[in-house]
Amino acid sequence: MFEIFGIPSQALFGQLLLGLINGSFYALLSLGLAVIFGMLNIINFAHGAQYMMGAFVAFMLLQYLGIGYWPALVIVPILVGAIGIAIERLFLQRLQKLDHLYGLILTFGLALIIEGLFRNYYGSSGQPYGVPESLQGGRNLGFMFLPNYRAWVIAFSLLVCFGTWFAIERTRLGSYLRAATENPTLVRAFGINVPRMMTLTYGFGVGLAGLAGVMAAPIYNVSPQMGSDIIIVVFAVVVIGGMGSIMGAILTGFTLGIVEGLTKVFFPEASNTVIFAIMIIVLFIRPAGLFGRLA
Amino acid sequence: MTALDNATAAPARRETDWSIAVAAAAMVVFLIAAPFMLYPVFVMKALCFALFACAFNLLIGYVGLVSFGHALFFGWASYFAAYSAKAWGLQPELAVLVGTAAAAMLGLIAGRVAIRRQGIYFAMITLALAQMMYLVALRVKMTGGEDGIQGVLRGRLFGMFDLNNEMTMYVFVLAVALAGFFLIYRIINSPFGEVLKAIRENEQRAISLGYKTDDYKLVAFVLSATLAGLAGSLKALVFQLASLTDVHWTMSGEVVLMTLVGGLGTVFGPVVGAFLIVAMENYLAAFGQWVLVIQGAVFVICVLAFQRGVVGELAARLHVRL
To answer: Domain for residue B111, yes or no?
Structure first.
């Protein structure tokens, strides 16, 4: 044990770790929002509800079918993504000619429906979801104790984030996607099915939210309001980062998680408002966001 | 940002303005008769929300800015009104004034931040600011945290009229709400209101005509916040309570819903929408969490099939302004 700025290292690194964990979820969720926004020009207000749905589906798989964490990590994003695809086909596709704000209002309505349904059946108290057996326990790093599951969450979310970045910025499919974001009409003229691409993009973004939900289940309680709690913070993250760049969303998410963790050490009473405060400052200095372009 | 223009009512024509006068007269007659037919508290609640929705509509319907954080002004004004009535023993009219002034100040600060971005970002920023102030309300001593401020005394209006009498209270709420409606109507029909509509239709063009659009947007935002605060202050007196519900994001969503159901950018839409939604919640109160699901479904249906809202649809059918 040693001290840094008068704070025991255990506490400091412990909060830093928590911050990194929160940051992983901010990054995963704001990444999904940015991908969806880039392609569909819609802010997916239901993103938090879909993340909550991911956690709940994992919980239900375990509870009713005995399917554990590892299969859930594959099944849940596909299931939740499929629901996303249905939502896009049924609702969002009809909004293309309308102002973006209708997309926001519609997905807000969807978020209420999803949250209300889960509250009906599970109440507002949380459901427990255990850490998978293979990741139980932890290791002592000398300056702090690192639980295995938390290390896995950070490593895996980094992998998913950079995988997504690579797929969009460095592959052929990604280049179609970026082209369709820039100029959908032209890309359509080249014979690429843009509406289908939009559907799949939305499904992918929603699947990412579902994946984040599964990863969050063993850390936070699985509860119906877990989505609305986090999504508003993620909106602030998105405003700070700007939605222009994938890498920007990832970096902003992780950084703000760490800043939040550090605030918890030094000014505990400001810890849950610090991200909003940073948002206000950024809006005055760089209204377009750190990585954004003013549209 | 050409926001929501397809949702606004039929084009303005001078000769059809009688329709507004007729509808206003009908509304006043209804509101005078209402407390004899319905529960006065129910009508007062609906009136508070109607004023709140009209204030919100000023922004969404006439400037094209969607605030997802109007609970900030509504809820904090009700805290200030309730606190000043309870802790300082202020008379009701002064308590309402304190609440409204607080909302105006908050509106000025939040507005300075939020108008730096438009469209979707504006919605996200207002939501984030409101959430921040919700978390503050959860923590500060003044608001009473989870308990809220309970048992607020209604007191005597101007030291003369005892507001504990339900009818006296109703007359007070009705008078304030009608004054609020009238003020909003005057604002949207003033030269200032015309500039707001110009900004909604084409901000770039308004700028090139020499209007400082940011200043106009800020003034509109502050006016909207102030009137939302007036509504919140009244609600605190009616229910003798200020609580976290009124600052929560669901409240911000509710006012969007009311305005959308009634008709964005119509004069009477928010009033009708507020009465419909408050009535719906009253009848559905027994169903618990289904209220959330039904609210969500109403949102979805309105966006997909009913963008003009009740009043907008009526106005379009009758080819009049409402």
So the answer is: yes
